[in-house]
Specification:
The structure holds two protein chains of two kinds. In chain A, 0% of the residues lie in helices and 0% in strands. By secondary structure, chain A is largely without helices or strands. Classes of the chains: A little secondary structure, B mainly alpha.
């Protein structure tokens, strides 16, 4: 899936 | 970080403290059958362990690391308390939801729908999908027992509100920084959706002083 997760969210 | 996410994380903390308080109280009034699902708590421990695999590798902030450590430690502590210390007040016959189905489903979906096919990304995606449905054994138990102690309803309210506020945080972040993350958005919507009927009963009954009873 295109996109990326937010590294700063818990 | 924005206010919505900060309050959401605090509600998450509050839910854990309410649960610990309830277990402490239950211990003191031993014999009252605990209405807390062990399976849900075990699923939450799994969620945190598979989500924060980058705990040491990816330092974001002191807040971020502290919260990750707290969530992992508290969820394992709760599982320990339920499994060993307060074993007597747990009744497995009430905790009958087939947790392996949600674990299997989340794992399968994480292997198919993810942002990157790496161990860490698939584990993270698995934790997002698992968290969305981890409350099911607990909600299932409430439908079986038909009622819940007031402190349990406050626990569920805080827990449901935490992810609901994350939805607001994601709307805010889309609006301000065009942040898009379909995996957490959809999983978060499902997770919050599972609480809708609980929220309805909570607002119409518990907050009016009535007992939490399912119709």
């Amino acid at each position: 899936l295109a996109g990326a997760r937010s590294k700063d969210e818990l | 970080m924005n206010l919505f996410r900060l309050v959401a994380d605090l509600m998450h903390l509050v839910s854990i403290f309410i649960l610990l308080l309830k277990m402490q109280k239950t211990r003191s009034v031993a014999g009252r059958c605990s209405r807390i699902s062990f399976k849900t708590q075990a699923l939450y421990a799994t969620v945190f362990l598979t989500r924060y695999t980058d705990l040491f590798a990816n330092f974001q902030s002191l807040y971020n690391t502290t919260m990750k450590v707290f969530f992992i430690a508290s969820s394992l502590y709760i599982v320990f308390l339920m499994k060993f210390k307060f074993k007597a007040t747990n009744d497995p016959r009430l905790d009958t939801f087939k947790a392996q189905y949600v674990v299997g489903g989340a794992a399968a979906l994480a292997l198919i729908v993810n942002y990157a096919f790496t161990v860490q990304e698939v584990l993270w995606t698995f934790s997002i999908y698992l968290e969305a449905v981890a409350i099911l054994p607990q909600l299932f138990m409430l439908t079986k027992t038909g009622e819940a102690e007031v402190i349990t309803t406050h626990y569920l309210f805080a827990l449901g509100t935490y992810r609901g506020l994350y939805l607001v945080n994601w709307i805010y972040r889309y609006w301000t920084e065009y942040y898009v993350d379909w995996i957490v958005w959809i999983a978060g919507a499902v997770q919050t959706g599972l609480y809708c009927d609980f929220f309805y009963i909570y607002f119409t009954k518990v907050l009016k002083g009535a007992k939490f009873e399912l119709p």
